[in-house]
Amino acid sequence: MKTRIELLEQLEEELTALRCRAYRAYSKEEFLSLLNSLLDTFPSPKIALENRPWIQSLDLDAHIMKENRHLLHLPSKERRKALRENNWEAAHTVQIGIGGADYALADTGTLVLFSSSSGGRWISLTPTVHICLLPIERILPSLDDLFPLLAQEENGTALGSAITFITGPSRTADIELTLVMGAHGPKELHVITLLF
Hints:
Elements: H1 4-17, E1 21-25, H2 28-39, E2 46-49, H3 53-56, H4 60-66, E3 70-72, H5 76-84, H6 89-93, E4 96-100, E5 103-105, E6 110-114, H7 115-118, H8 122-125, E7 129-135, E8 139-140, H9 143-152, E9 163-166, E10 171-173, E11 179-181, E12 188-194
């Protein structure tokens, strides 16, 4: 059985092969510095942040606002209501979505997101750039290791209405097999593994 670090190394190798960028953060300070450097590559980006409790515990709202960046800031109940009413104007102006993964599969470089914990799939699917935060203990060897965990969820209520599997940035090819990145979702995928 592989150690957590060996699984992380395998995941990073797969992510790189998929044209993702993989990073490690060993402390909150290192994570914030890394996040700043990623966000600084975009002039005045509009940012959306998932409302997972463990992401909220990182106090990213205050950090992003302190840096004078534009944060789409709707409490989760208001955000859900606005999006349910097809008010997608705000969502379509967001360039960077910052969210978390429920799990990652090391053998394929796949991120697994439950709609119940993410507060909706749009933050990982609509913006041009998706920055995904991944706690190291959420890396699994393969899909075979995920299924027993899903079966343990009582009536599937913790999963929500959908499970999203993300394997690299959005890509499509036309009939001549010309590859286009970002045609139907994020053009860039950055995965930051949290080791603190």
